[in-house]
């Protein structure tokens, strides 16, 4: 997989705040505490938990998209009669963006609420992951913010994993690997040769910028590295230097606010690039508001990911998702949460009347890749003893255009593929 947006998201949180204290867990989130053992029987509802850092210090709604999408799917499923006649009951928990709050959410959902599974987890600090793994509760389709999904068994990221996942260390002895497909795409399709990488003078930001720089250099780019002061960033000076250096592309290791300010500075100094590349978290319908002061840069925003563009409503699975959202503001993370809920449902349905956690995990671990009716690039879970030196990987790409929204680029995501090197990094 590419160097994932997960590291960017964790970075943004580290940049914006210290760890939050406590969590918000209203009793209304935990009605009717009824047991749900590892095998579910009878006509009782199937209870699933959704953990999100809804009130995280990163800001309101930053981590709510996957959970919103999952709940929309289960609402639609229940309206059609449920899962083989059984209603899916969703129990939510906001961990407040802290490790303490996450551990409390895991305790409440797993130990007290006795949920059968977790779905579409989106946690800033997944401190409770070891407890989830120890309890043998499948976590289906979680967003890999941090290394938990490449560390523990019973956790299944929406993007898949090839790591051993023994619970001892992330990846292979604490090292993960990412591909260079994003950089290969822009080189081959846009003729890009010079890339700017902008970071704060902060350890996590600089570390992620080094990962991006390494991947770009592996694909033969000339890289222009820029650093701004976190407390008093001079984005205008950075943009001016990138213009003088002839940057074709701009990548960054910034938070969302910094991204918008960088775009404003690029417009102010007349920097015109082939692409200002952002990540899946920013793949949403709120771009006009967030980048309102940067109309030129806004229309050079490109995004890459591993799921089908939510704007491609000619695809039946995308249309079903959009119909369920009923014209609300939408995002790619919502679509991925919808796909996670579908994944759990398909796994549970494969069990027939013998629904058990073991049966669900057999489906998740099967050799056939999962696509959520074409919403996802093929997802599989392999436990490779050694990391591969290269992989054949595919990519979903879209570009923002005013009046049209996110427009798919590079053709169908299942055909937009390349065999690329895998580079080591430590999370």
TrEMBL record:
The species this protein was found in: Streptomyces purpureus
Entry's family note: Belongs to the leucine-binding protein family.
InterPro entries: Leu-bd, Peripla_BP_I
Keywords: Signal
Signal is among the record's keywords: yes
First and last residue of the signal peptide: 1-19
Protein name: Leucine-binding protein domain-containing protein
Domain annotation Leucine-binding protein: ranges: 45-402
